[in-house]
Amino acid sequence: VTVTATFDKGTITDVVLDVSGETAGFGADAGETLVENIKAANGVDFDGKSGASVTSEAVRTAMADILAQKG
Question: How far is it, in rounded angstroms, from Cα 63 to Cα 57?
Fold first, then answer.
């Protein structure tokens, strides 16, 4: 899972997820939902995707790293 996020004044304005290496029908199909949930939560306290808990947690961890680097 690769995550890239764009910010404007502390608000997440865009998230790009590469979940192409995840399991088809599960994590590989979770990208769009996870992007919407991340943007709505404006952080790591977002709802994961049912059936894609491993991918959801990997994305949550990557977003936490991004936010930590951002400061």
Answer: 10
CA 69 – CA 42 distance, rounded (Å): 16
Bridge partners, residue 5, by sequence:
15
End-to-end CA distance of the chain: 22
C-alpha dihedral (47, 51, 55, 60), degrees to nearest 10: 10
Q: What is the DSSP string of 28-56?
A: GG-HHHHHHHHHHHTSS-----TT-HHHH
Summarize pLDDT for 26-68 with one digit per residue, the tens: 999 999 999 999 999 999 999 999 999 999 999 999 999 999 9
CB atoms within 10 A of CB 68: 8
- The confidence band for 71, taking pLDDT boundaries of 50, 70 and 90, is confident
